[in-house]
Write a structure and sequence with these properties.
- With 175 residues, the protein is mainly alpha-helical.
- The protein has a domain of 76 residues.
- The protein has 4 helices and no strands.
- Helix 3 packs antiparallel against helix 4.
- About 11% of the residues have low confidence.
- Keywords: DNA-binding, Nucleus, Transcription, Transcription regulation.
- Pfam families: bZIP_1.
- This is BZIP domain-containing protein.
- One of its GO terms (biological process) is positive regulation of DNA-templated transcription.
Length: 175
């Protein structure tokens, strides 16, 4: 059995309730004017029923307020769910953008790391080359010093001693 609701005095509200499938039984057409006229006629004929009619009207108004509040609460809950869904979609989109940005940054990092490794290799090669050039320069300087000593004709004892010391230091450094 379908529960019967008290008749409402607002035809727009009744139409809304009928549209959403809440409220009235489809077999029973609601005639607000007949219900109101009957209540008014009965209230005019019997004074003791006047208080019961006003109590019924107050009950009808309370039921109507409860019904409106229930509808309002459902609509508010629907709006809240829609807001929550939009927020969730925004968070998912943001997470996707952050993942894409993270991937881009990771690729850039790998590129920078590869370039840094290349620079380190080049630096090591240049240091080795500088060391080799330094050794060649030292050998050339020794050869020039010996040539100057031999070209001078005489061996001075102090020049010879300094050359021996210099050669001794050089040999210990490179052996």
């Amino acid at each position: 059995m379908t529960p019967q609701l008290p008749p409402l005095s607002d035809p727009a509200l009744e139409a809304f309730l009928a549209d959403i499938g809440f409220g009235l039984v489809p077999d029973e057409p609601l005639d607000v004017t007949t219900t109101t006229t009957t209540t008014t006629t009965m209230a005019a004929t019997r004074p003791e029923e006047e208080t019961s009619a006003s109590a019924a009207a107050a009950g009808d108004e309370a039921a109507e307020r409860r019904l409106r509040r229930k509808i309002s609460n459902r609509e508010s809950a629907r709006r809240s769910r829609a807001r929550k869904q939009r927020h969730l979609e925004e968070l998912r989109a943001r997470a996707g953008r952050l993942r894409a940005g993270n991937s881009e940054l990771a690729a850039r990092l790998r590129g920078v790391q590869a370039r840094a490794a290349l620079v380190r290799l080049t630096n090591a090669r240049l240091r080795a080359e500088a060391g080799a050039l330094g050794r060649r320069l030292a050998a050339a300087q020794r050869a020039i010093a010996l040539r100057q000593i031999y070209a001078g004709g005489g061996f001075e004892l102090q020049a010879l001693a300094s050359l021996i010391v210099y050669m001794h230091i050089w040999l210990h450094a490179h052996i």
